[in-house]
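Note on ligand handling. Small-molecule inputs were canonicalized before submission; formal charges were left as drawn, and no protonation-state enumeration was performed. Where a ligand contained multiple stereocentres, the stereochemistry in the source SMILES was retained. For NAP, this procedure yielded the string shown in the input block below.
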Amino acid sequence: MPIEPSRGHSEGIGEALFPPSSVLRIPNLKRWGLKVSIIGATGYTGAELVKILLRHPEVEIETITSQSFAGKKISEVYPRLSTGLVCQSLDAERIASSFIFTALPHGASMEVVGNLYLRGKRIVDLSADFRLTNPLVYEKWYGVAHKKKNLLKQAVYGLPELYREKIKGARLVANPGCYPTSAILCLAPLLRYNLIKEDSIIVDSKSGVTGAGRKLSLKTHFPEVNENLSAYQVGCHRHIPEIEQELAKLAQKEVKITFVPHLVPLNRGILSTCYADLKDFLKLKDLVEVFEDFYREEPFVEILPQGCFPQVKDVVNSNRCQIGLTVDGKRRRVIVISTIDNLGKGASSQAVQNMNIMCEFEETTGLS
Ligand SMILES: NC(=O)c1ccc[n+]([C@@H]2O[C@H](COP(=O)([O-])OP(=O)(O)OC[C@H]3O[C@@H](n4cnc5c(N)ncnc54)[C@H](OP(=O)(O)O)[C@@H]3O)[C@@H](O)[C@H]2O)c1
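Structure output:
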């Protein structure tokens, strides 16, 4: 998509479309950037988007919205975000930017996305509202009616490693969930090459507490989480149908998984351990080669050398996914471990990666 020259600057440097060069003593690339808006900028993923996009050389943040903090500067909500941007209450008619990130809770997002889509915007939606292709599955797992079923066919699942070409032409990208990103990246090469039994997959994941969002709850209260480790929504977490949907597309047949998420006393980060039975015995060396080949061109997926396993410390605050694997020869089982930042590759930086692809910017821009 061509980059439109901006008309003025949100931080008041000047209003003229082509100001005299003397005004621009310091080259300000952002003057000519794509204007973007962030709906729900005060949540954890929204604030992370603000942080990343403030440093993105092709982008100018035009509007940020919040219901609870309307009228306040985002720097009053998050002092680390040093910008004059002021939160506005959401009014779709007043949003001029052509590119929008929606970072709202599921259920609340679908109406907003529908409205913006009708106005011709390009959207990356971080909620679960457009990830599941079957609205009945969505309604069963999320317990709310899907009010924008007509848009489900337009939405592209935003995992660049699998859908880069479709993302390029998309107007609506459904940014994947954090656990699904970590699990699918572990299992994709194995299912694409038909190497594992589809009914044997177990995904065991651990997440930091920001995965639950900023709203207050007893579950994420400090004394409940600190020095603790607990499983939750065992076998019934809402990310199960999303993971199964994507694994089924890779396997070209139905896939059912066992998924157990855990909450760990970290702010950010996910570690997922995936177990599956191999159809035929394969040496670890050969499996590592399969993974290296599959992700060879991927700027954000790194396969660790044999004997090395990832840790969240190495991926937090990045868009990276690190993967390590081994073979349990006696049981003919492969074990694949991935780490991501739930707010990074699991949400906001992956959303920016999707924007880069949609807008034909260099895919790693603003993310290295
Ligand atoms: N946290 C993660 O690691 C993660 C990872 C992947 C995907 N996601 C998904 O990304 C979305 C945002 O997650 P989050 O963690 O950033 O959530 P969050 O911290 O709870 O923030 C939600 C944002 O939406 C606004 N909001 C809440 N209810 C609203 C409503 N009914 N209508 C309009 N705005 C509303 C909130 O602020 P105001 O009250 O100020 O408007 C806030 O800005 C969710 O759908 C989540 O599932 C989260």
